[in-house]
Amino acid sequence: MDIITEIDEQERRKKMNQVIAGIHDHFIVCGFGRMGQQIAKDFQQQNVPFVVIEINPEQTPKLKELNIPFIEGQASEDKILKAAGIERAKGLIAVNPTDEENVFIVLTARGLNPNLFIVARSILQENEDKLRRAGANKVISPYVLGGHRMAAAMLSPRTVEFLELVSRYDYSATEIGDILISENSKFAGRTIQESGIRESTGVLVLAIGQQTGKKMTNPSPQTLIRPGDELIVMGTSDQVDAAEKLAAGD
After folding, report:
1. Which pLDDT score is estimated for 156?
2. Which of 97, 102, 118, 241 has the most beta carbons within 10 angstroms of its beta carbon?
3. Residue-range domains of the chain with CATH
4. Model-level pTM?
5. Can you tell me the distance from the alpha carbon of 14 to that of 37, in angstroms, rounded to the nearest whole number?
6. 183-241: per-residue pLDDT in tens?
7. What are phi and psi of 235, to 5 degrees?
8. Please, which residues have CB within 8 angstroms of residue 42's CB and are 6 or more apart in sequence?
9. Mean pLDDT, rounded, of the chain
10. CA distances for 34 relative to 10, 62, 106, 226, angstroms
């Protein structure tokens, strides 16, 4: 690397650090392999703030090309996670190549930010409990999910086609989101029918997760909405945003 190139690189890194320092309520993606790249693509399409941590220098050109804020280093190290703004972050996704790496990342991240929502990938199903004990809120096994999806494609092909249509990349068309009901929400203390959530926002309520831990799919119009409930809804991005505001009492 010649002197001019080195100066340019230092300037680029300085600007990148300034960008990362200004980000808050963001997500940290640990690993920029195939899964990390798909996550980054989805986040970019939805204008979600995020930072990538990647140790493999071969991924650097692609990160630069896509203009993604990133930190080079080992994601299980305190200083690297702090550089990615873990104290200000909303969540972290651990998709490094091995379960062992992801366990260490989750352990370190949980120690640095006890309130962080952490999702981790598990290659081996027997390691899912280890990741949960390390502090992951949610553990995803792509092989298990893939197996379920392939079985469903054989048994219920039309349903799978619909779900694929919903989850494709035009997020302005249809998306599935979760909204938390606050004490001040106009929905709280009313049934789904009484709340008028469909009429006022356009979203469809697919499921309700209650504070007790009970989950109801396809709830009836007479289901009561309580403060602290989490509603899984489907609609356009604008409709889901409108429902989130009303759920928060705005």
Report:
1. 78
2. 102
3. 3-145 (3.40.50.720), 175-248 (3.30.70.1450)
4. 0.73
5. 24
6. 999 999 999 999 999 999 999 999 999 888 888 999 999 999 999 999 999 888 889 99
7. 180, -170
8. 48, 169
9. 89
10. 28, 12, 20, 40
d(CA 79, CA 34): 25
Q: Spell out the alpha helix ranges (H) of the chain.
A: 3-21, 34-45, 60-65, 78-83, 99-112, 128-134, 142-155, 157-167, 192-195, 197-201, 237-248
Distance linking the first and last C-alpha atoms of the chain: 54
Task: For residue 123, give the DSSP letter.
Answer: S
SS3 30: strand
pLDDT tens string 46-73: 899 999 999 999 999 999 999 999 999 9
